[in-house]
Design a protein that fits this description.
Largest sheet: 6 strands, mixed
Strand content: 15-25%
Order of helices and strands: EHEHEHEHEHEHEHEHEHHEH
Structural class: alpha/beta
Helix content: 40-55%
CATH class of the largest domain: Alpha Beta
Oligomer: single chain
Number of helices: 11
Number of strands: 10
Number of domains: 2
Shape: globular
CATH architecture of the largest domain: 3-Layer(aba) Sandwich
Distance between the termini: 51 Å
Length: about 325
Amino acid sequence: MLTGKLPRIPLAHLPTPLEEMPRLSAALGGPRIFMKRDDQTGLATGGNKTRKLEFTVGQALRDGVDTLVTMGGIQSNHCRQTAAAAARNDLRCIVVLQGERPTQWTGNLLLDRVLGAEVIFSDKGCREQIAEEMSRREAAAGRRALIVPVGASNAVGAMGFVAAMEELHSQLELRGIAADRVVFASSSFGTQAGLCLGAKAMGFRGRLEAVAIDSNIRDLREGVAALSMQAARLLGLDITISPDEILAHDDYLGGGYAVMGEIEREAIRLVARTEGVLLDPVYTGRAMAGLIDLIRRGSIAKDETVVFWHTGGSAALHAYGSQLLEGEDP
């Protein structure tokens, strides 16, 4: 295992299932679609960030940290999973959320509090600066804090998806499946960076194809390539990944981050009503919308085999109820 010598704390139910989606494939007229179910990682409703947190918390415990400080949007899946990982390991957790305090506590935001995190809203301030202030406050109180970046997307967090790529590669080989593409949401770069590094280290031949959630393609390619190289250095791998190697689509940004539009609404409903699987309104809904469009436009051929990486986040659906059911009779 590429990451075997790094500190790691078991938090996820691994390996996550690789399930075929025949009714979804039929509804789209092909291709053959499999889903990598990281919504089933098991930590406080699951999600892909649990993989990253296994390495992040492993590092924190090794270094004597007693408080995790992290950041995200109001409905951050990462913050919810960080709060759960902290509770599981007897650590304090502070989450700094972008924007103003809402009138209702729903979805991931509600779970942050249930899991015991201290929740701070940035209002119009810079959440990174506030996180630094919280770290200094903890130090003044005699505690040692680790600031976990948005999405746990640094070289340590990316290790979770180097290991995940090894996991997927083994599952595909065991079942004799040749995947032409792996499609997934990409936002803070860590998931994609780990997948790209793991794939190149193992000689995986399928295309790793991201649907950008909130970045233009130039920023995404540069960010993923840079983080991939940091992760390679951490592992001592002599591997180069350039921005030109990063495959992504930035055609589905819609109204912006965490704004659910018609394409996300259709994707969530279609997958729910064909396969009984819940996507989320911010990440997997948008990524699946991209996959659906690529299939309908013929950019993905009917005879291909595609793996869609479900990165979790269904807890956020409860905060989008009226938008999700827009256009339907109550």
